[in-house]
């Protein structure tokens, strides 16, 4: 379909040309060369760098190699139309944000379809030159804003990552030196210093744990965490963690038990595809929290097979305690970073946030139900290995 442009204002040539300091790259996609040439000529006058693609396939190849700042895309093209190009771009999660301006000669339903698929704006033929330039400027402002936001986020992640790495070095060194003091390797310390050294070791280890936790959180949030997926026997892993934490339960006179009678009755092995170390971190965190906040009663771990909202065949891990419970107002924020509860023993607010990151990376779900004064129930659902 041919493209017609309304005449430019008569005083346009008398207006001084102001070129942006940043040269934005725009890709124009149309199967008719005349349409591309007209848009290219007009937008180049505005200081933009214009590239041309004459088909949807060519446009996708170009975008994959060198993503532009803006895409001007004709809807009606042979082979692959503008809707399909838009759909494929939005499904490509590896691409940076790319604003898409659809050019259409159709009516309202086609505009709605384009916006639903993922286009950001549309313009109808015949195109008004001033309208075209205004929409291009608007979308490029959006592009610059998103790019700036992403840059700030990456810089923040890099800063925290570097900071945590730099903090770990002196903390590890201090931990080793304090351990040497405690063991008497540098001379037997006075008896009065023994408790002080023990306190320093505990405080240093707590700080080191927090730094390591913070580093793991930002690895997930920055997409830099690499998971090693293997077949993991979840019931066996749960038993291992319970055995390790049993002394803590005994110390607090709590009952820590594993109930997997339902799982055994269902005759399911309970194997999931996952990263054993990361899943162990989730289980340890949930059981550790339950033991930490429960002073009287028990912590019960249950395993079964069931379905959830998004998982048709899931192994379900439940950790239930008889602790103080969590207020309803606090529950929606419980898995957010740096959100701590009102309990006096609340920690950094990173453990549950990291647990959710790990569970979701395994395509699972984690939820909580709690009543103040009656205890809490944390539930993790993970897809069973098919």
Walk me through what this model shows.
The chain has 3 domains: 17-127, Rossmann fold; 162-221; 230-383, Histidine kinase-like ATPase, C-terminal domain (Heat Shock Protein 90), CATH 3.30.565.10. Strand 4 (100-104), helix 4 and strand 5 form a beta-alpha-beta unit. 47% of the residues lie in helices and 18% in strands. The protein is elongated. It is α/β, with parallel strands linked by helices and 386 residues long. It has helices spanning 33-44, 56-65, 82-91, 108-117, 129-183, 191-221, 234-251, 261-265, 276-293, 351-361; strands at 25-29, 49-53, 70-74, 100-104, 121-124, 230-233, 255-259, 271-274, 298-306, 314-321, 365-371, 375-383. A 5-stranded parallel β-sheet has the order 2-1-3-4-5, sandwiched between helices. It is built from 10 helices and 12 strands.
Nutshell version of this structure?
The protein is α/β, with parallel strands linked by helices and 386 residues long. It has helices at residues 33-44, 56-65, 82-91, 108-117, 129-183, 191-221, 234-251, 261-265, 276-293, 351-361; strands at residues 25-29, 49-53, 70-74, 100-104, 121-124, 230-233, 255-259, 271-274, 298-306, 314-321, 365-371, 375-383.
């Amino acid at each position: 379909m041919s493209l017609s442009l309304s005449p430019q204002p008569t005083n346009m040539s008398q207006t001084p040309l102001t070129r942006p300091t940043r040269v934005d790259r725009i890709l124009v996609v149309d199967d008719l060369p005349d349409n591309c040439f007209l848009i290219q000529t007009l937008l180049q006058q505005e200081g933009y760098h214009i590239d041309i693609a004459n088909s949807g396939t060519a446009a996708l190849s170009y975008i994959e190699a060198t993503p532009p700042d803006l895409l001007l895309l004709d809807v009606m093209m042979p082979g692959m139309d503008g809707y399909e190009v838009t759909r494929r771009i939005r499904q490509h999660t590896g691409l940076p944000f790319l604003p898409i301006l659809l050019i259409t000669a159709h009516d309202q339903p086609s505009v709605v379809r384009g916006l639903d698929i993922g286009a950001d704006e549309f313009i109808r033929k015949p195109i008004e030159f001033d309208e075209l330039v205004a929409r291009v400027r608007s979308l490029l402002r959006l592009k610059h804003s998103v790019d700036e936001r992403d840059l700030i986020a990456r810089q923040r992640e890099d800063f925290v990552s570097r900071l945590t790495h730099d903090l770990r070095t002196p903390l590890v060194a201090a931990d080793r030196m304090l351990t040497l003091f405690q063991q008497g390797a540098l001379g037997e310390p006075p008896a009065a210093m023994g408790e002080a050294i023990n306190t320093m070791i505990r405080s240093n280890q707590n700080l080191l744990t927090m730094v390591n936790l913070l580093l793991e959180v930002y690895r997930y949030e920055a997409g830099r965490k690499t998971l090693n997926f293997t077949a993991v026997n979840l019931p066996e892993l749960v038993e291992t963690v319970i055995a390790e934490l049993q002394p803590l339960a005994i110390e607090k006179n709590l009952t820590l038990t594993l109930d997997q009678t339902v799982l055994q009755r269902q005759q399911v092995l309970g194997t999931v595809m996952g990263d054993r170390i990361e899943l162990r971190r989730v289980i340890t965190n949930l059981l550790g929290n339950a033991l930490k906040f429960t002073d009287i009663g028990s912590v019960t771990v249950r395993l079964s097979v069931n379905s959830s909202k998004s998982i048709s065949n899931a192994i379900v891990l439940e950790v239930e305690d008889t602790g103080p419970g969590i207020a309803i107002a606090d529950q929606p924020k419980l898995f957010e970073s740096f959100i701590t509860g009102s309990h006096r023993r609340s920690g950094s607010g990173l453990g549950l946030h990291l647990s959710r990151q790990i569970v979701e990376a395994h395509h699972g779900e984690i939820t909580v139900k709690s009543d103040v004064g009656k205890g809490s129930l944390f539930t993790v659902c993970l897809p069973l290995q098919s």
